[in-house]
Amino acid sequence: xKITFVLPDLNYVREYMPDYDGVFAQGxxxxxxxxxxxxxxxxxxxxxxxxERDNYIEILKGEKxxxxxxxxxxxxxxxxxxxxxxxxxxxxxxxxxxxxxxxIAPENTLSDxxxxxxxxxxxxxxxxxxxxxxxxxxxxxxxGSVWVKDNGIIVRNxxxxxxxxxxxxxxxxxxxxxxEKLADAKLGMLTVLAGRGCPYNCTYCCNHQYKxxxxxxxxxxxxxxxxxxxxxxxxxxKDYPYLEFVNFLDDTFCLNKNWLRKFxxxxxxxxxxxxxxxxxxxxxxxxxxxxxxxxxxxxxxIGIESxxxxxxxxxxxxxxxxxxxxxxxxxxxxxxxNFSSYNMxxxxxxxxxxxxxxxxxxxxxxxxxxxxxxxxxxxxTRLYDICKENNFLNNGDSEVSTFFGNSVVALPSIxxxxxxxxxxYFNVFLKLYGVAYFMLPGxxxxxxxxxxxxxxxxxxHRFYLKIYPxxxxxxxxxxxxxxxxxxxxxxxxxxLKKIITKRSYS
Length: 506
Known about the structure:
It is a single chain. With 506 residues, the chain is an alpha/beta fold. It folds into three domains: 2-156, 3-Layer(aba) Sandwich (Rossmann fold); 188-475, TIM Barrel; 477-506, no CATH class. The chain is 46% helix and 15% strand. The chain is built from 21 helices and 15 strands. The chain has helices at residues 26-37, 53-63, 77-91, 100-104, 106-110, 124-136, 183-187, 207-213, 226-239, 257-270, 286-294, 309-315, 322-334, 352-365, 382-389, 416-424, 426-438, 442-457, 461-475, 477-488, 490-505; strands spanning 2-8, 41-47, 67-71, 95-98, 117-119, 146-150, 153-156, 189-192, 195-196, 222-223, 245-248, 275-279, 297-305, 338-345, 370-374. The strands form three sheets. The chain has a seven-stranded mixed beta sheet with strand order 2-1-3-4-5-6-7, sandwiched between helices. Strands 8-11-12-13-14-15 form a six-stranded parallel beta sheet. Helix 14 links the parallel strand 14 (338-345) and strand 15.
C-alpha cells in the first residue's frame, strides 16, 4: 500500500531565508521508516509555498495513494483544511491527520468534512497497523490511537500504551525529502532526537496534554541509548558528508546528567562535530556547562519567555528566578558557549511594562540571539483555557495562523498596538539597553536607561510602528544590509557567514 504524506511547511520569516525549501521533519521521518520497514510504499508532498490547487491535484493523482496523511501544528490547520479539500477533489482518497493539533484537538480536526481520521499521540505503531489492515481490506475502525468517522459517527479508540523502548524503531527516513534543497542542508545542520518527552508543565505548551494522555503508560520522558544516537549520526554523515554541525531537537537536551555523562564523551570521540541544543536553566549547573563545552557544544537555546518573575511563575508555570537565568547565561559566557533565548510578548495579564522587563533581562544576560514571538493560544492548553475563561479570545476565534502576525487574543492589560511594538522593537531596544548597561560609565548608564524606559512606555506605539522601517536600518545597519543581500544572493551570504564564523572560532 502507498501512503502519501503531506507536510505544510511554509516560511513565515522570509527575510531570514527567502530561498526556503522546508526543513526535515523528524515525525514524518520516523513514520516513513516504520511504514517502509513494514513493507509499505511512502511518498511526500512537501508544501513550502502557497499551494496551487491544480498543481497539487495533478501531483496527487500521479501518486495514486491508498492513504493521504497530514502532519500539522495548530497554526497550520487552516492550510491543511484547504489541502484536504483538494485531496478529495483529486480522487476521494482517504485522509488522516496527525501531529500536535489532531492530538490535542481531535474533535476540532475531524469537524472538517475532508478529514476522515486522526491519529492521537505517537503514531508509528498505530499508522503501521492501520495501513496493514487497509492493505488487506480488513475493518480498520478498531485501531488503537486512531479516531475514525463512520457514517457521521466518530469511533473514538483508546490511546495505545506509550512505547518505552525507543530502540525498536528504525532511524528516521530522510530519503523521502529532497534533502539537498532543505534548510538543513543549506545551513549544514544535522537534526537528531536523542529522546522524547519533557517533564515541565508550561501552560502555553501542549506538553502537559501529552502527559495526561499517557498518564498510565509509564515514563513519559525517555532517552535513546547513546550507541543508537551515535550510529544514526554516523549513517546520516555518510549519506550527507557536507553537514557541519548537529542540532539536538530535544525539548531539554541537558535534562538527564547521567545520560549526558555517558553520551557526550563518546560523541566527542566518535563524532567530534560542533553541536547545538535546547535546555532549561534549572538543569544547567557548572559541571554540565563545562562538559558541554569540552565535548563540542557551541550553541544552547534557553526559554526565558518573560522578564517578569510573577508572569513566568503564575501565568506560564515556569519556575525559575531572574537570578537563575542570569547565572546560567554567565556560565555560558565563562565557558564560551553562545546562549540564545526564546521570548514571548502579548502573554495574558501582561502589561507593556512587563514586555520592557523581558527586553531588559535579555540585555542584562547578553543573549547571543533573541527569538521573539507573539503569544498564540494553542487549543486545550492551560493558557488557552485561561484565555477562554477570561474572554480574551477575539470574538471567540482561536484559530492560530502564525506566531509572527497579529495576536488572536484581546487583552485588557495591553493593546494589540503595544504587542506589535514590543515584537517589532524588541531587538532595537535590546541593543540600546545593552549600550546603556555595558558601554557607558555609571552615571550615564543610569541616565540612558531612564530615557529608554520613558521612550518605551510613551503612548506613541502607533507612531513607532510607522517609522520602524527607518529605525531598524539606523540601529542595525549591518543586519539591514544582510537582509537585503539575503533576498538577492542567499547562498553567497550564508557562505560568507560560515567563513567568518570559522575564522572567529579558530
